[in-house]
Structure to design on (600 residues):
């Protein structure tokens, strides 16, 4: 065996000492580096992430108040603020203000709350009541399903903004009852548009599946905008949530990058959620699943998948490879035709 | 003519007497105190749902000042006046991520001029200082001979290690799924109103940090910490926690 290895090693050394082979090898390395650079410079493909989930909790920051409007009936309203008060039964069109944090919670048939919390002391929502006695709401608004209230409770809930699906398991509050909040199951499907043009060649328009995976129950799913991070690193910011004490004011432009669009449909055991985002990254957040030191995992949805999954790019690779193979074969056949079978830059020929 | 009027007059007198007796018998033995008649009728709509049962599950901690630096358990202090206060207490020290928790009974010292410290014989003292910042550990001190205590217990403000900004009182509340507001009250009069927000860091132990400034009290001493929130029935509810007010 060592004899065979030595023989191969000697043959490779002899081959590499040939100047012609050296030049070809150098050219191949340069070509490969240019190819890698080209791959690196490829534009991020247009892609989207679809989330199908069953969750007891959805929260999002409003970027488009009109798209976030709710027709509320059969619910009891309460406002917590400097002048906390019960609003009584609410039968109104509720439009949350821009930048507010909207939460939907549902733990069962008889458990549904809608909560709207303003940033700092900003406006919360506008209520247009059927009796005409609505108006702006100041303070934190909470609407709770109450069968004794007239009207029909909403069944479809809009999601339009940076969102968090699910809430980490926490301790029950004063009633000893865990508020609805868990993400029970979810599937993420990522799709992208294949590379459409290379130099002068137009390629067919193809949508391909980048990846699909089930999300562990109990985690929080949200979108992330930090495209410069690599797979697996924790994001600088956790998932969006209620306004925090040290939070910066909401920025609509930044929010729109990580916005989700979709709806939550009330079911017996939570919400059935269908939503999509164009964000470049996805975050799964859970101290219980991923540990205390790195409680969040970021998944890059763009560039890495493109190289491995883009069907147009794969076909392009295949065709270029085939072309090079034929080129090499053609070159060899030409030489064979001209000089006979003993052709090629082999050390044997050189030694002659 | 006179004979005809007499029975009518007698009937009128008897009717007046009857009315007077009836009026006297409807006079209550307890007259309503000034302040009006306060009542609540819960609609039967939400069945099987109860209201608050264990208020102390809601109040996770009550601090004077913002904590700073590593958590050194031997530097926890209590603002407890010695005179006129109960003798037994329950102290809970827990980290925001619920990894560390200590629940212990205490007795007020008999020493004449003690330091305000809370004795801690933790075998994890050095680990706690290494792994937790003082801001990540929440302390709650309540009166009573049982642990974790009852809803009618008195609450004592804890001074966390490295406390700065001691003009600030911080209430750590677990009101997940609701909103909350705190105020300091005396004889049902609001002395100061606080503000509640989500914590900056993820916390399993509590959902809201509420702060109120001592200077807003204008020298008055509050009797209770009032937490206003939305209960399970969707109604605004108040829970008062009686305070033992200690100065630095």
């Amino acid at each position: 065996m060592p004899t065979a290895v030595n023989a191969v090693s000697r043959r490779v050394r002899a081959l590499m000492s040939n100047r012609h082979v050296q030049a070809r090898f150098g050219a191949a390395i340069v070509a490969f580096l240019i190819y890698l650079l080209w791959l690196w410079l490829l534009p991020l493909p247009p892609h989207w992430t679809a989330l199908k989930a069953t969750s007891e909790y959805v929260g999002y920051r409003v970027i488009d108040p009109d798209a976030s409007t709710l027709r509320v009936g059969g619910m009891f309203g309460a406002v917590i603020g400097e002048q906390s008060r019960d609003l009584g039964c609410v039968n109104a069109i509720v439009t949350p203000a821009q930048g507010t944090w909207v939460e939907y919670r549902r733990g069962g048939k008889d458990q549904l709350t809608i909560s709207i919390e303003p940033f700092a002391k900003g406006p919360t929502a506008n209520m247009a009541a059927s009796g005409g006695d609505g108006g702006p709401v100041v303070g934190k608004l909470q609407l709770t399903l109450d069968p004794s209230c007239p009207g029909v409770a909403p069944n479809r809930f809009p999601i339009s903004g940076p969102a968090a699906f699910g809430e980490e398991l926490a301790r029950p509050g004063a009633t000893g009852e865990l508020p609805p909040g868990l993400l029970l199951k979810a599937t993420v499907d990522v799709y992208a548009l294949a590379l459409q043009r290379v130099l002068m060649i137009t390629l067919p328009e193809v949508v391909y599946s980048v990846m699909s995976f089930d999300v562990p129950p109990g985690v929080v799913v949200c979108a992330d905008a930090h495209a410069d991070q690599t797979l697996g690193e924790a994001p600088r910011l956790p998932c969006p949530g209620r306004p925090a004490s040290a939070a910066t004011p909401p920025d609509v432009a930044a929010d729109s990058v990580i916005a989700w669009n979709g709806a939550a449909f009330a079911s017996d055991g939570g919400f059935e959620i269908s939503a999509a985002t164009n964000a470049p990254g996805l975050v799964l957040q859970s101290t219980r699943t991923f540990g205390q030191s790195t409680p969040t995992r970021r998944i890059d949805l763009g560039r890495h998948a493109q190289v491995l999954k883009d069907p147009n790019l794969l076909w392009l690779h295949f065709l270029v490879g085939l072309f090079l193979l034929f080129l090499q074969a053609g070159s060899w056949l030409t030489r064979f035709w001209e000089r006979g079978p003993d052709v090629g830059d082999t050390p044997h020929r050189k030694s002659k | 003519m006179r004979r005809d009027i007499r029975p009518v007059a007698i009937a009128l007198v008897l009717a007046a007497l009857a009315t007077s007796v009836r009026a006297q018998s409807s006079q209550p033995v307890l007259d309503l105190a000034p302040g009006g008649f306060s009542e609540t009728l819960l609609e039967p709509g939400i069945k099987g749902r109860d209201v608050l049962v264990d208020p102390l599950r809601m109040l996770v901690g009550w601090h004077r000042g913002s904590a700073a630096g590593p958590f050194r358990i031997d530097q926890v202090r209590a603002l407890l006046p010695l005179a006129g206060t109960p003798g037994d207490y329950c102290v809970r020290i827990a980290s925001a991520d619920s990894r560390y928790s200590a629940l212990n009974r205490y007795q007020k010292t008999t020493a004449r001029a003690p330091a305000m410290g809370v004795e801690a014989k933790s075998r994890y003292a050095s680990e706690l200082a290494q792994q937790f910042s003082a801001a990540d550990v929440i302390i709650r001190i309540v009166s009573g001979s049982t642990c974790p205590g009852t809803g009618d217990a008195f609450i004592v403000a804890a001074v966390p290690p490295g406390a700065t900004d001691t003009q600030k009182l911080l209430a750590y509340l677990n009101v997940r799924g609701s909103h909350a507001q705190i105020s300091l009250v005396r004889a049902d009069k609001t002395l100061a109103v606080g503000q509640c927000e989500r914590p900056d860091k993820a916390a399993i132990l509590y959902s809201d940090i509420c702060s109120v400034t001592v200077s807003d009290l204008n020298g008055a001493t509050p009797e209770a910490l009032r937490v206003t929130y939305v209960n399970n029935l969707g109604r605004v509810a108040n829970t008062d926690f009686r305070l033992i007010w200690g100065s630095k």
In short: Residues 311-339 of chain A form the longest helix (29 residues).
